[in-house]
Design brief:
Layout (H helix, E strand, L loop, with lengths): L10 E5 L2 E5 L6 H19 L4 H27 L3 H18 L3 H4 L4 H31 L4 H6 L1 H22 L8 H29 L1
Antiparallel strand pairs: 1-2
Helix pairs in contact: 1-2, 2-5, 2-7, 3-5, 5-7, 5-8, 7-8
């Protein structure tokens, strides 16, 4: 047997003082090789396919870099003083008014109220993206299939990171002239974070199922 390893099994039959020893060959290499291939396939599947370990690490590094860049962008926007922030909101309002041909103002909407809605919506969008990126980064970092990780600990860790950053962001704004720290903004940010984390979990789960 070319695929066999002979295992010497001592079978002793005693007849008075005489002993007979037999050493039959047992074929088990093929079974062991098959088991090794299955274990390797399972590990590759958990890492995202053949060579998935390297791709998984690269994905994790790329996603954490994206998280850091997005956090820096939020920090820069929060560093704007009140006048600068209102100017940016006014630019968006002017764009929307142009698209709507002034209908919103004609219908009695206060431009200041619209500007407030724009700023609050921007809060949610900023943290929606952060929740999306952070959850995907954790899913790529934690062990196990990326879809399963995203639905479990990665989603919780991503949401926790996003909310913690929202709190520090409001503290930062407290020290910016003309800006203030508001609990309501943290709550809006949290809604965006949870929504982004949920979407990331769904996308990662779909990608994981497609890979299988």
């Amino acid at each position: 047997h070319s695929h066999c390893t002979t295992a010497r099994i001592r079978l002793q039959f005693r007849c008075g003082s005489a002993c007979v020893v037999q050493s039959p060959p047992i074929c088990y290499n093929r079974a062991m090789n098959e088991k090794s291939r299955k274990d390797a396939a399972n590990s590759a599947r958990a890492a995202g396919g053949p060579g998935g370990g390297d791709r998984r690490r690269r994905l994790a590094l790329a996603m954490w870099a994206a998280v850091a860049i997005w956090m820096a962008a939020i920090f820069v926007l929060s560093a704007d003083q009140a006048a600068e922030s209102e100017e940016k909101s006014g630019a968006v309002l002017s764009l929307l008014s142009g698209l709507l041909s002034g209908e919103g103002v004609a219908m009695g909407y206060d431009p200041l109220d619209v500007a407030t809605v724009i700023r609050k919506s921007a809060h949610m969008i900023e943290y929606f993206v952060l929740g999306l990126l952070a959850t995907t980064a954790w899913a790529a970092t934690l062990k196990g299939p990326i879809g399963r990780a995203a639905k479990g600990r990665a989603r919780r860790y991503g949401a926790a990171l996003g909310i913690a950053y929202a709190v520090t962001d409001e503290i930062h704004q407290y020290f910016v002239p003309g800006r203030a720290a508001m609990i309501s903004d943290v709550m809006l940010d949290a809604v965006g974070v949870f929504a982004g984390a949920a979407i990331a979990a769904l996308v990662c789960g779909a990608v994981n199922r497609a890979a299988e």
